[in-house]
Automatic annotation (TrEMBL):
InterPro entries: ApeP-like_dehydratase, HotDog_dom_sf
Descriptive protein name: 3-hydroxyacyl-ACP dehydratase
A Pfam family annotated for this UniProt entry: ApeP-like
Taxonomy of the source species: Bacteria, Pseudomonadati, Bacteroidota, Cytophagia, Cytophagales
Amino acid sequence: MPHAEPFVMIDEMLSVEQNKAVSSFKISENNLMLDRQELNEGGLVENIAQTFAVKAGFQNISRGLAPQVGYVAMIKKLKVYSLVPVGETIITEIIVKTEKPTFVIGEGVTYWKDIIIVSCELMIFINDEKSSDEE
């Protein structure tokens, strides 16, 4: 999951632990994932996926490894309770349930004003092939 402007859905990693991470994200008016001035369902799921990706990147860097490219392979048990308006900040917590060399399975929960607004399970496929730049 390469993340670059204008498709960055995380502002700050608040904590990164072995099987858990927490991120924050303030929704800006120029976000590509807005519908009627609210972050849409796709943006909420993308925020969770990027929290998984940044956590994995932090861990790889701490191990002296390069960050790997990952792809959302499965979204399960998705529940969206509310969308969030422009200008507000969301907090996303992810918990890794299973981690293998080629995939990660975990749960994500996003909060707005201490209320759960979205939850889901994700499977992230990890592409372990080296890019032509690395060879």
